[in-house]
Each structure stands twice: as C-alpha cells, then as structure tokens.
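Shipment paperwork, digital attachment
Item: protein structure file
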Amino acid sequence: MKLIGLTGGVGMGKSTSAALLRERGIPLVDTDVLSREIVEPGEPALEEIRKTFGESVIDTRGRLRRDTLAFIVFSSESRRKQLEVIMHPRIRERWEEQVAVWRDQNEPVGVVVIPLLYEIQGEAAFDVVVCVACSAASQKERLGRRGWSPEECERRIAAQSPVEKKMAQAHYVVWTEGDLESHKAQWDQVLSSIRGGR
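Attachment content:
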C-alpha cells in the first residue's frame, strides 16, 4: 500500500482535497475528525484537558468549549504544547490503527490528513507527502469566512510551520488558488504518479 500524508496550512484546502479523494473511493482518515472524537464526554483526553486547563473549557453539558480552549492555547505556546502532549499520541494511535486495517484489506492507497505533519516529525511514517497550499491572501480570506478575526487568523497561522517550508519538503504540492476543476486535475496527476511508482 502507498500511504499518503496530506498536509498544508490552515485554510488552504485540505478539507476540499479530502472530499475529492473520498469521491474517488480512496480510504482516508482526517486527524481533525479524530481530534474531535477523542474529546467527547467520557474520553480520557477530555478529563485530562479539564485537569490541565480548568473548568472554564467545559460547558454545562460536560462538552469541550472549543473556542475557549482555542483562545487559551493559541495565545500561549507553552499552553499549546500542553494540549499537544495530551492530544497527539492519542490521535496517532487512532490513525495508525486505521492504516493497519487498510493494510489488512490490501488497499492500494490510503490517505491520512495531518495538518501538523512536519511539526510532529510524522513524515517518516508515509511513502509520499502531499502539501495543499494557496497564497497568503487567499488563506486569510478563507479564514475570515470562518468568522475569525484578523488577530485570530494570525495566531492560528503562527502556530504552524511556514507553508513554504512544507511545500519544499513535500513530494507533491496541490495549489488550490484555481477553481475546483483545477484542484481535481492536480489530484488526478498526483495519484497517477503515485500509483505508477514515480
């Protein structure tokens, strides 16, 4: 099986890429989804977050207040590191379990979406890394459409390695400035190359 690591900057098109790959029937696991699953009520990670960050990050129904936690961790690198210690090993365990299932099923290709792939030094686990990217102006416009303030956008972007560095390290880059058809065509080329062993 060719295992693909899909990464890129925040707001640069990873979710769109994931949707396009799923449309092609390619098995895919998104670590953003896993990160939400492991903080559901009753999960050990949620209790650890409560102990580390306090009751203010838990709502009256016992669920994680994502916005409150995000404000804390994106305002302080040391606090962000505390959260990563709680989250990253659990997330990795889950995606590795999924990859093992794909291997048992003899899937020819599998994709794991990991925004912080290079930041966690996870690239060695993959045969190929694809970086999804766009211009800084488009990135900020897309993040603004999420309702984030300019300050929030800057904090989120600063928490990741520069996308130029990710692009330089990746085997392939999918540039998402164009329309959806361009996005699809680039993925068709990448997949053809990967499947052909090039």
